[in-house]
Amino acid sequence: MSDKANTRSATTASSKTPPLLEVKGLCKYFPIFRKGIWRRQIGLVKAVDDINLTLNTGETLGLVGESGSGKTTTVRTILRAFTPTSGSVFFLSKKGLINLATLQMRDLKPLRQEMQLIFQDPFSSLNPRMTVGEIIGEPLKIHRLVQNSEIKDHVAEMLKMVGLKPKHRLRYPHAFSGGQRQRIGIARALIMRPSLVIADEAVSALDVSVQAQIINLLVDLQQQLGIAYIFVAHDLSVVRHISKRVAVMYAGRIVEWAATEKLFTEPQHPYTRLLMSAVPNPDPRVPMNFLLSGEPADPARLPSGCAFEPRCPEKIAVCSRERPELVEWEAGWWVACHLRQESGL
Amino acid sequence: MKPGMTPYSEDILLNIVNLKVYFYTDEGEIRAVDGVNLTLKRGSILGLVGESGCGKSVTAYSILRLIQNPGRIVDGQILLNPRKGAPIEMTSLSLRSAQLHQLRGGLGSMIFQEPMTALSPVHTIENQLCEAIFIHQHVSRAEARKIAFKMLSRVGIPGPEIRMQQYPHELSGGMRQRILIAMALVCQPELLIADEPTTALDVTIQAQVLGVIKTLQRDFGTSALLITHDLGVVAQMADEAAVMYVGRIVEQAKVQLLMNNPLHPYSMGLLASLPARNLRRKKLPAIEGSVPALTEIPPGCPFHPRCAHLIPGKCDRGNPPALNELVPGRKVACYWREQCL
User: Fold this and answer.
1) How many domains would you assign to chain A?
2) Which chain B residue shows the shortest CA-CA distance from A287?
3) Residue A140 lies in a domain
4) pLDDT tens across A91-101, in order?
5) How does pLDDT run across B74-107, given as a tens digit for each residue?
6) Which CATH number is B12-245 given?
7) Residue B70: cis peptide before it, omega within 30 degrees of 0
């Protein structure tokens, strides 16, 4: 496919600036094969199923859900670490609006400068045989953005930005603590000055006292550089702090998507409510709900109706038959639940 | 009696006095636990919080004498005071003694963090549960199976008869953690040590598992030492809480007091930095710096390089402050707080 077919001129949409990222009907299915010589396909895991999302420049979108709900697969499919089964991902790059979902690998590579990833584990995501300077400078080398002699200066500047010292570039990762390593990972992601950064559980592995430092750093850098984040996390209080809008995922689908404060103060989907009531509040006077039932849905064996129906305390007859679509319940507030669709009428 | 030592009392099940556990490695002596004082009241839950590497787990493992080479308990006492029989000084027991063997899983038992590594992959759930029963109770196979079945229903496992014939890999993480709870409580121990029992689980499953622990702890009258790094879990589960930093307890108090009005600068900093407590603020008040390596513990109070209330000349030299009862019912180890009051 040629570049032209994928590139819609940005001027056509100039009356209203398109969002930085617009995900439409994104699906990623993984086949399940029977073991043995005749590897016959016996099923399909719908890891990501019909995801719709938008993200504006400089904004943060939080993505929450239990493990196995498809958060990581969603963000990796957006970045084309996986090729989507169907759907489109419109990304507003410097060259205009591009559909990442259908792009050839060779056209994708230059775009990688504009979208970067921060990983969860600061111990396994840094190569122990490279110095910090080599790790942070490597993206510049790969994309041949600056002269080799200038890399040192760029790395030093980046180290200062993330709160480390320029002299640290000569050391190896093992000499740093978990929080400092995460700063190195952030420096590596931001040295390309990306417009989109995906933070996949970026603060989950850190200690409580260090976590707050890294959250502050991410917020500061966003304000300085105008980066948009997709912040994937299972810790709801962190997501609430950092995100402008939050999407809740269950069994590969978005069940609720709204502005952060609205979602946290009046959650509409029963699953969102369940998830929030399960978070232990650090104030002993606020009781938590211990009375949850059931286990997360298995994405290989989803029920025909709503995936949450077996665990839902508020289910009605229609829930086991029909799958609710994600509809706009209120302006900017999307909910996929039969109960909300009826009351919305 | 030594100062700071809690007097012998009927309602205290576990009393740890000045416990020191050092590890002798190539890099030198590592003081993982360096003078821990801790008391656990009968029938209550004590939450032990701290960051990774602060010595929470080493403290817990010491109680049942599970510290392995190159680690050694070099000083201190661990007094266990069961309802029946004489008090036991755990540090004086020989590792090979029959008494220690009977104690583990009988009077005191443990739930570990990683259920997959704590369960045997080659034995059925039934065999693993019944093993614990056979060691501590004189019952027949059929009776043991009945006890195991009952215990599995108590921890909320659906279809226990099927699950008993299965192997750990056939169960989900939450289910495995329930099996571990069942194994730990099947002999109705007086002391339950839970080392990060829900850290590997999702919040929804965590809530279920914590609910099971709390219900059974109440029903059996068990006392529990709950180790976690999650302040929310402590607030919701524990009656009392103790905060640990670099091998020492810096504060112990009733959970409501500690969570709502911490006295030690470290506990104050930890609680203030939680996003849940800063709903309308963009910037989180973070504690500066990071936890020191155990090979480079600063002199004086180990928290002084990060402390906002540092008293120069006092906190940064000499001995670390002792854990004293500064306010009735509240123990704090801090020179600054001593001066404030």
Assistant:
1) 1
2) B236
3) yes
4) 999 999 999 99
5) 999 999 999 888 999 999 999 999 999 999 999 9
6) 3.40.50.300
7) yes
CA distance A61 to A260: 9
Chain A: closest CA distance from residue B270 (Å): 6
3-class secondary structure, B157: coil
User: Which residues on chain B are in Cβ contact (under 8 Å) with A168?
Assistant: none
- Minimal Cα distance from A212: which residue of B? B286
CATH number for the domain that contains residue A95? 3.40.50.300
Lookup result for tokens 């590897």 = A39
Alpha carbon distance B322, B300 (integer Å): 11
Per residue in A126-175, pLDDT tens?
999 999 999 999 999 999 888 989 999 999 999 999 999 999 999 999 99
> Does any domain span residue A338?
no
Q: Which domain holds residue A41?
A: 3-250
CB contact under 8 A, A209 and B202: no
Inspect the interface and report whether the beta carbons of A234 and B202 lie closer than 8 Å.
yes
Q: Which of residues 78-107 of B touch A (CB under 8 A)?
A: none
Is A104 a domain residue?
yes
Across the range B61-67, mean pLDDT stands at: 95
Name the burial class of residue A261, with classes exposed (0-12), middle (13-18) and buried (19+) by CB atoms within 10 angstroms of its CB: middle
Q: Is the pLDDT of residue A16 over 90?
A: no
Q: Taking Cα atoms as reference points, which of B310, B332, B307 lies closest to residue B321? A: B332
Which of A178, A277, A282 is the closest to B277 by Cβ? A282
Closest Cα in chain B to A288: B236
Q: How far apart are CA A205 and CA A166, in angstroms?
A: 25
Is residue A304 included in any domain, yes or no?
A: no
pTM for this prediction: 0.87
Span B153-206, pLDDT tens digits: 999 888 899 999 999 999 988 899 999 999 999 999 999 999 999 988 888 889
The ipTM is 0.84
Contact B235 A283 (CB under 8 A): yes
* Among B52, B207, B291, beta carbon nearest to A292: B207
Which residues, listed in sequence order, are joined to residue A33 by a DSSP beta bridge? A41
Q: What is the pLDDT of residue B200?
A: 80
Q: Which residue of B has its CA nearest to A293?
A: B208
